[in-house]
Specification:
7 helices; two-stranded parallel sheet; alpha/beta; about 200 residues; Rossmann fold
Length: about 200
Amino acid sequence: MNKIIIAGAGTDQGKTIVSAIFTTLLQGDYWKPVQSGGEENFDSDTVKKLIDPEKHCIYPSAYCLKAPLSPHHAARLENITIDITRIIPPKTSRPLIIEGVGGVLVPLTKKNLTIDLFVAWNAKWIIVSRHYVGSINHTLLTINELQKRNISIAGIIFNGEFNPDSEAAILEFSQLPVLGRLLPETMITPKIIQRYAKQWTRPTL
């Protein structure tokens, strides 16, 4: 089973939309292991509205937490103990698109970071980098952390209007390929997801 982890250089990078696009592009299934901040609408609910449920499986999360905080904090507020041994990728014959939780160093528990769990899954990683002041630093720090752990990175998705200076710097220092670019959209619809799926580069699995 091929697994792809959609990781962000931080929170609010666009991981959910990117996950929906790659699920469509790769004709795969979707899974977000831990969700927080979705008291009214979890990320998996968003993906469900954007992809064809008859063609893709959306697997249930191991934990769904209400507060828009890091999982270890949100879980404490609900008096929940996150047991990482319960967080196991579902088995599927198709590519499994795994959406990360915030940045790669977000704590799941007092002793476990997200990356500590995800690295054991032998997956390819895709980095989502949204343009803002500081994004070069945050993106390169994220890539450096993955590379220190010998994690295979398939490429980068840039989120925002084309920013040649920022993108050139990130690509020069990381030596990673661009798989696609997510432009500002008035509204994200299934048709928009389909359009990007036809435009973006298929990662090597």
